[in-house]
Structures are given as C-alpha cells and as structure tokens.
Design brief:
Length: about 450
C-alpha cells in the first residue's frame, strides 16, 4: 500500500470517533515533498471515503438519538427525566471501555481495537428500534452496548496518530482529525430529520448501523496500527515517519504509579471532566432546547443545530494552525496549550451566560454557535496534551482523561433532565459555566506541554 493511502485511511477513519480525515493529508503531504513520491490518486480517494464513513458512523450514534428522541418520546410518552436517562445510558457503556481501550491499543495496536469498536457499535445501532419497542430496559441495554463499542475508538485512534503524525504537526493534525467529528455531526443533524419524516425514526438507526460491516472489510485489508506493520511501506518512508513521531512500538507494561503521580495528568483529567460536561449537554440536549424554548419544529431543530458544529469544524482547524504557528515562533508548548484551552473554557462560559439575555431565536442560535466555536480551541489545548506529556502511553492517558469526560456526560446528561423538571434552562447553563471556570483555574495552575512520563 502506498504511504498516502495508508495514512489517509488511518486518519480518515477517525472522522467518526477518532476523527481523522484531513489530518493525515497534511502530514502525508510533508512526507511526500521530502521523498518526492508518486501515488495512485484512485486508491487515495477510496481510502479517504472509507475513513470518512467510519467517522460518520460513530458520531451518528449520539447525534441521531438527539434528533430521534423527539418523535420517540412522543410515541412512548417519555418525560424529560426518562429522556435524560436514555441519553445518559450511552455513556455508561462508553465509560467502561475508555481505559480498557487505551491499554489494549497501547499494547497490541490501534487497528484491531478500532475495527472491533465499529462493528460492535454498528450492531447495537441497528438493534435500537427493536429494543425501543420491546421496552425501556431493552433500550437502555442496547444504548450501553453502543457506548461500549464507541468507547474504544478514541483511545485507539490517539494511539494510531501518535505513530503516524509527526510531532511538529501535532496541534494542526489533531485539530483536523477531531474536526471530523464535527463534520459528522453536521451530516447527522442535516439528514436525520429527512430520514425520520420520510421513513420514520427507526430508519436513522437501520441506515447507518448497517454500513459498519462494509467499512470494517476495507479497514481490515488496508489499515495498519503503525508504519512498522505496513509491509508495502518503503524503507525510506518508514524510517522518516518513525523518526519524526514521538511514539514508536507498542509498550509491554503500563507504569500506572508513575502516570498517576504526575500533577499534569490530573490537570488533564479534571479539565476533561469540566470541558465535557458542557459539550455533551449541548450535543444531546440542543435539539430539545431549540424545540421547547425556541419553538423550532423537528426539521428546523436539526438544521439550526448544524451551525454550531460547522463553527466548531472551522474553529478547531483555525486553533490548530494558530497553536503550531505560535510554537514555531518560539512560544513554549506549555504556554500555547494554556492559551488555547483558556479560550476553550472561557469562550463557552461567556456565550452561555448571554443566552438568558437574548430575545430572539436568531441571537440564541448565534450564542450557541459562538459557544461551541470557541470550545473547539480545546483541540489544541487538552486534546493535544496527551501526546505532549506521555507520548508512549497516549492511548492509556486518553482513556483516563476521557473516562472523566464520560462521567461528565453521564451525570451531566441525566442531571439536565432532572434540572429541567425542577428548574429552567438558565440553571442548566449556570452549572456548565461554573465547571468551565473551575477547569480554567486547574488547567492554568497545573498543566504543562513538556513530557512528564517517558
């Protein structure tokens, strides 16, 4: 397999949960310029398409339910607390496989782990309509299974990227990879209402759950966890990639004591929790907010939800470019990470506080877009920091911090349903703002961009 095909496939594969489309494009371009290689453009396009599908699959697991929950709650007569329970049940399973997925990826490689996750998730997605009709307990179990499959994807992709993406391109590459999630959200929010109106809400789960096996077939035949495992990669190509990446081959043991003794690790964990509380609430509850507060119908809710995600896709890449530029100008990685993550915390905090003062749906949508747009600068902050402080154990570290992030999703999503039964949307946003401020303080006091675990 050509280098461009290999890297494009791996990177695009995360467009779904590990989001990786454009990322590898940039690092591949740099490598190609140095080696003056020529590649088959047809194969490259096929690889990019396969990776793009994987990104969309995984993101749809959350986005589709946030839209489908509206007609489902009407059909099954669910109250807000029950809706919150259903939305949060996904995160119960997602939580279970964060650390396990990181250990598995760091010890055996990310290819098998990511492939397993997509297949498992696809089966659970296709079973969702059947489970819902059988009863709430069955639906909760299937949602947990969906979370289990999706939970391994992010640690696995982080492991793969640490082996394929050069250190000098880390912020830009990771931002490009993770922006694939936002583009997947755009696709889901745009097409789910159409499918629901035309074929009914079960169609969104059948449609995208059935596509995972196709992606898996190509993934098995084309992808590799690291350059060393690619038999068709030329020696010169392999040497260049390996020498420019911080992470090399799989590790044999995980130094848990050393990892957990480092304050920057805990800063990452706490900050991930604070960040994800607000992010997951917006992901799962935004269509409901648009429907109940702004009085948009189902189609309008889906379409207006697209704008914040488009803003995030743009802002993530802008932030990545800014971060790498600042580093190239001589600013320390630590300072850059603190600047970018402070924007990722304080920006959303400011715009969420404005929601209680706006008097038009247009201004509310604008505040949402600006909130999530500034949130995306976190891709060059905490989301790039795993490979800064522990490149050999980036999968495990991502699993640790994202476990905290998932807990925020579980508690935040469920708590929102409870708060809405006894309070208001203003109360929901106040909790998110408070956690953003806590995250800002912890991050600036204890984070670093230097390696602390070798």
């Amino acid at each position: 397999m050509s280098l461009n095909v290999e890297i494009s496939l791996i990177l695009f594969s995360k467009i779904s949960f590990s989001r990786s489309v454009f990322t590898k494009q940039f690092s591949v371009i740099d490598v190609l310029l140095k080696l003056k290689l020529k590649h088959n453009s047809y194969k490259q396009i096929i690889s990019l398409c396969v990776g793009n599908f994987e990104q969309i699959f995984i993101v749809f697991g959350q986005v589709n339910m946030s839209i489908a929950i509206l007609p489902m709650s009407a059909e099954f007569n669910w109250n807000p607390a029950t809706v919150g329970l259903i939305q949060s049940s996904f995160f119960w399973g997602y939580l279970l496989t964060q650390i396990a997925g990181g250990i598995w990826a760091d010890t055996v490689g990310g290819k098998a782990v990511l492939g397993f996750g997509v297949v498992w998730w696809s089966i659970a997605t296709a079973l969702t309509p059947v489970a819902a009709k059988l009863g709430l307990p069955f639906l909760l179990v299937v949602r947990v299974f969906m979370g289990i499959g999706e939970g391994v994807a992010m640690p696995a992709m982080n492991n793969i990227l640490s082996k394929w993406v050069p250190v000098a391109e880390r912020s830009r590459s990771l931002a490009l990879v993770y922006s694939g999630m936002y583009l997947g959200s755009v696709t889901g929010l745009a097409f789910s209402p159409f499918l629901i109106h035309r074929f009914g809400w079960p169609s969104v789960f059948y449609s995208f759950g059935s596509l995972g096996t196709v992606w898996f077939t190509v993934w098995l035949s084309k992808a590799h966890s690291s350059p060393a495992e690619d038999p068709q990669l030329r020696p010169a190509e392999k040497k260049l990639i390996v020498s420019s990446c911080a992470s090399k081959e799989p590790v044999k043991t995980i130094p848990w004591g050393l990892i957990l003794s480092k304050p920057p690790v805990w800063a990452l964990i706490v900050s991930h929790f604070c960040h994800n509380w607000g992010t997951f609430i917006l992901l799962t509850w935004m269509p409901t907010y648009y429907n109940q507060v702004l009085h948009f119908n189902l189609t309008e809710s889906g379409l207006f939800c697209v704008l914040p995600w488009l803003t995030m896709a743009f802002s993530a890449n802008l932030g990545g470019w800014i971060a790498d530029t600042l580093v190239s100008k001589g600013l320390s990685v630590t300072t850059v990470r603190k600047i970018m993550q402070s924007i990722g915390f304080l920006g959303p905090a400011f715009f969420l506080t404005q929601l209680s003062h706006v008097d038009s749906p247009a201004m509310a949508v604008l505040c949402m877009a600006c909130s999530q747009g500034t949130d995306a600068f976190s891709q060059s902050g905490l989301y790039s920091n795993h490979q800064d402080i522990a490149p050999r154990y980036s999968g495990v570290l991502l699993g640790l911090s994202n476990t905290a992030g998932v807990l925020a999703g579980v508690f935040g999503t469920a708590a929102t349903g409870y708060i809405l039964q006894h309070g208001s949307w203003d109360d929901v946003f106040k909790v998110s703002v408070g956690l953003y401020l806590v995250g800002t303080a912890v991050w600036n006091l204890f984070s670093t961009g230097e390696k602390v675990v070798d």
